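sorry for the late reply, my laptop died twice this morning and i had to redo everyting from scratch. anyway the thing you sent over, i finally got around to it. pasting the sequence first so we're on the same page, its 143 residues, then the predicted structure underneath. double check i copied it right bc i was rushing
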Amino acid sequence: MTIATILLIDDEISFVETMAKRLTKRNFKVISAFSGDDGLNQIKQHSGIEIVILDVKMPGKNGIETLKEIKQFYPLVEVIMLTGHATVETGIEGMKLGAFDYMMKPCDMDQLLSKLTEAAEKKQKHEEKIVDARLKEITARHP
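ok and here's the structure:
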């Protein structure tokens, strides 16, 4: 059974391919993208994406710009920022814009798996709250 569907956005093709294999072996479904725009197109095409692993430094649309668009159009999707060039300021900016967390590259696989599990649980709880609220609204209208 799949733990979660992940969109992995990074301009380093070898990193994406290696990480996708490692996550797939651990029961995650992984969709790959190699730029911010590519990632945004993938998220539009695949409605089941729950978590995005997003590189901060990419040519074209960088991770912060991509994060803003993801959160604008897909607010329930959790985003973990990854960077080899992170500063504390970049991490804080990402968190202020709605990122679930940020990690330095190369990241410890166990730590990443832990963050992915936490992010998947958070997203599931948000979705359950929305369903509960909708059910309450429907039952309130039909006594």
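The helical segments are 13-25, 36-45, 63-73, 88-96, 109-141.
thats about all i looked at so far, will dig more tmrw
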